[in-house]
Design brief:
This protein has ten helices and five strands. It is of the alpha/beta class and 237 residues long. It is globular and about 50 Å long. The protein starts with a helix and ends with a strand.
Length: 237
């Protein structure tokens, strides 16, 4: 009998714990949302100001005249929330870091990375969060010179399936730029430019959130290519 009573007590305890956990879930969700609350906007209030700030930062990077950022202060500011003024899809290449290339500090850029800077569904959703929730007024699709992902797509354009792992699925995203660049004098360079431009165009076609933000004038979506040799970012519009 003792074992039976003990079993009943144990079951009651378990049910009580489960109910308590269920009641706690909404509270935990609210706490998580508050933890990433949106900070008041910075002095960059529109897409054109955002572009201007990025290009000034890139000029400082090229000239070797970068600002002396107080990262500790930026870290403290960011501990209570964020309000990045620009969002990026960048290539996962280790040589492409928007925070450095545009001379920005912690909390100013919302950066998403994937090989070949393609707008996957996951990255589009991330940009929707940056623009729709955090108030970012600019989205940049950032290609770069000598992109290995785009070059691989060109080299294997007729036989993607020969590539290992998930690469065939990745390569399929580059096909429009690969096809359009056929016959170009510098095909890789042309394909990189087209890939960034097509990526930017896809964002408003595949996201109502981003399309509405652009239509209302709250956000702009642009593309460009970063040159690994000179450090210059060429904006394509």
């Amino acid at each position: 009998m003792c074992s039976k009573v003990d079993g009943q007590v144990t079951r009651r305890a378990m049910l009580g714990s489960t109910a308590a956990a269920g009641l706690a879930l909404p509270t935990m969700g609210m706490a998580m949302a508050q933890k990433d609350k949106v900070l008041p906007p910075s002095n960059i209030n529109n897409p054109d100001q955002a572009i201007e700030e990025l290009m000034k930062g890139n000029r400082r990077f090229i000239d070797g005249d970068m600002q002396d950022h107080d990262y500790l202060a930026a870290k403290r500011r960011g501990s209570s929330g964020q309000s990045p003024y620009a969002a990026f899809i960048r290539c996962a290449d280790s040589r492409v870091a928007p925070e450095i290339v545009f001379d920005q500090t912690i909390g100013e850029l919302f950066v998403c990375g994937v090989a070949g800077n393609i707008p996957t569904p996951e990255l589009i959703a991330s940009l929707e969060f940056s623009v729709g929730t955090l108030g970012s007024s600019l989205v940049v699709v950032m290609g770069h010179s000598n992109c290995g992902a785009v070059d691989t797509a060109i080299q294997f354009e007729n036989n993607f399936n020969e590539l290992p792992g998930e690469l065939p699925n990745l390569m399929a995203h580059f096909l429009p730029a690969v096809i359009e660049s056929r016959g170009a004098e510098n095909r890789l360079e042309k394909a990189i430019e087209l890939n960034a431009r097509f990526g930017a165009e896809r964002l408003t076609k595949e996201s109502v959130v981003l399309a509405d933000a652009v239509e209302s004038g709250k956000c702009k979506i642009v593309s460009g290519v970063y040159d690994l040799d000179t450090g210059r970012f060429a904006l394509m519009g």
